[in-house]
Specification:
By secondary structure, the chain is of the alpha/beta class. The chain folds into 2 domains: 3-134 and 169-230, Spore Coat Polysaccharide Biosynthesis Protein SpsA, Chain A, CATH 3.90.550; 247-309, no CATH class. It has 10 helices and 12 strands. It has helices spanning 13-30, 45-52, 70-82, 104-114, 142-150, 153-158, 187-193, 205-215, 247-286, 297-309; strands at 3-9, 32-38, 59-63, 90-94, 98-100, 118-126, 132-133, 136-137, 173-174, 177-178, 182-186, 219-230. The strands form 2 sheets. Strands 1, 2, 3, 4, 5, 6, 7, 9, 11 and 12 form a 10-stranded mixed sheet that branches. A hairpin with a 5-residue loop joins strand 6 (118-126) and strand 7. The radius of gyration is 20 Å and the shape is globular.
Length: 310
């Protein structure tokens, strides 16, 4: 099998159906299958998905035993496929709140075929209004935490080489990591570095996977020719600044820095975040700018990190 497309659903069944339908034609041409994993939604999602693809031999619906997060759900489908008698050459992960534009999947397959050292390839992602959503990044670092929270032009210019978000996403190029909302993985790479680390419930798991691939000598690319429309965070709601940031985001961030560089790296990153965010909050008040941060962001950051330290 050339390609396996994996879509992980949690209480977004109708979006997952649209995501799968956006991929079907190209999967058929390339030669592959689609697997939709329901992460124990317990809201009738599994019935909606099975009904939508009843009798479709190209789409399988898998009921996961629990809601173990993004990496867990993808691992359920990937491990089954990679251990089967007909393992895929590539695995394409597509968020349920995303749809592939015509030609996107075939462009990724062609790119991977032509770049044998590329282990992971991400796509150009656009919002529903057609504007570009950043989907290629630099690895997080303590200085990157300062730049990202300070929100000051002079600091961004000074710390640009550490800025996680400042890549232009306007051309095909090698990058540190790409968004897991739409990403192609080489099965050979996964066989060497392993699947997602399921200690990440949601967020930072694709960052970790790209870092492991890079450390093993594989390349990570952003492929501008492949475009996906993504209603960002429609499946998680984390971008809704009227709501507090969920604990799993803090857990994933903490675990990433610990895994990357140990306690020293984590606490340098925490100090960088606290310094940058605190200065931003002071400057925002002095300049009378609107408050666009999630409620209790600073308190939640301190609380979650201190609790975990204890």
């Amino acid at each position: 099998m050339k390609l396996l497309v994996v879509i992980v659903n949690y209480k977004t069944a109708r979006l997952a159906v649209l995501a799968a339908e956006s991929a079907r034609a190209e999967v058929r041409r390339v030669g592959g299958r689609i697997a939709i994993v329901d992460n124990d939604s317990a809201d009738g999602s599994i019935d909606v998905l099975r009904s939508a693809f009843a009798g479709d031999t190209e789409v399988s619906v898998i009921a996961a035993a629990r809601n173990g997060g993004f990496g867990y759900g993808n691992n359920v489908a990937m491990s089954r496929a990679l251990e089967s008698d007909d393992p895929p050459t590539y695995v394409y992960l597509l968020n349920p709140d995303a749809t592939a534009r015509p030609g996107a999947i075939e462009a990724l397959v062609a790119f991977m075929d032509g770049h044998p050292q590329c282990g992971i390839a991400g796509t150009h992602i656009v919002n529903p209004d057609g504007t570009t959503h950043v989907s290629a990044f630099r690895f997080p670092s303590p200085l990157g935490e300062v730049e990202g929270t300070l929100r000051l032009g002079a600091a961004t210019k000074l710390l640009q080489r550490w800025s996680v978000w400042s890549l232009p996403c306007d051309r095909t190029e090698r990058v540190d990591w790409v968004s897991g909302a739409s990403v192609m993985l080489r099965a050979t790479t996964l066989g060497e570095i392993g699947l997602f680390d399921e200690n990440f419930f949601l967020y930072f798991e694709e960052t970790d996977l790209c870092r492991r691939a890079t450390e093993a000598g594989w390349e990570v690319w952003f492929v501008r020719e492949a475009t996906v429309v993504h209603e960002v965070a429609a499946a998680t709601g984390i971008k809704d600044t009227r709501r507090r940031v969920p604990p799993y985001w803090f857990e994933s961030r903490r675990y990433y820095f610990l895994k990357q560089g140990g306690w020293r790296e984590l606490w340098l990153a925490n100090l960088g975040w606290l310094a940058g965010f605190s200065l931003w909050r002071v400057r925002r008040r002095l300049q009378r700018r609107p408050d666009t941060d999630p409620p209790q962001m600073l308190a939640d950051f301190v609380r979650n990190n201190l609790r975990r330290r204890a």
